[in-house]
Specification:
- The chain is of the alpha+beta class.
- Helices cover 17% and strands 22% of the residues.
- The strands form 4 sheets. It has a 6-stranded antiparallel sheet with strand order 1-2-3-4-5-6. It has a 4-stranded antiparallel sheet with strand order 7-8-9-10, covered by helices on one side.
- Helix 1 packs across helix 3.
- The longest helix has 16 residues.
- The two termini are 28 Å apart.
Amino acid sequence: MNRRALATLESHPHVYVFPDDRSINSHILSLLPNTPPKPDLAIGTTTDLPLTPDSLSENPNFLKILHSVLSDHAYQDASVTSQAQAMASSSGSSLGSGGAFFPQQRERRRSTNYGGGGGAGGDGAGGASSQGGAGGGGRGGYIHVYDHRNPPDYGRIPWPEDIFGSLEVNSDGSFVDGNGRYQESGTYRLATREGLYVEPAVQTRCVTDDGSSLGLSSFLREKLVQRLEKEAENL
């Protein structure tokens, strides 16, 4: 962990670590620096540091808030908008670094050729993620909002455990109903073998103040923190 005014999770300067007084050898992980921490708004708890997928107990209320924020704001993110515009372009499949979108089409047969966690290109992520194949060219379809702890190869679908959800895009690159009608994937996991990453990531990259390169959208992370701060005022 990094030792500053507050302890933070290694390689995640925005994730604060607090002792969990409710349980021995347990730690609360939070995006809020509030002391004492507010467990109802925390990412979850972990019995190990560094954490593992098995040591993290996810907070369902945090996930609910996360998806609510994505539903309200994902379509406003600049890189999500870029994906939508690329989908409407003549080439269709140019989505920058590792992006993928999925044209509206009849449901395909389920593939059994999965990798771990459901597999890139599978139908396990629910919503639009079951619709494979890059293309578009004026046809409309879906784009994914996903976690960049394990970014997919160019043109491939992210692993289901990394997909937050999907947005629906019209053939002209605009979002259906103005906001894309965000669909939660139902398979996202806060911690995987690739580590913990809770900031909604889409196509943008930056270097954090501790020098680690993370794929994140600061816009969406800020929206999430703002929502958590508002919720904290009511507790």
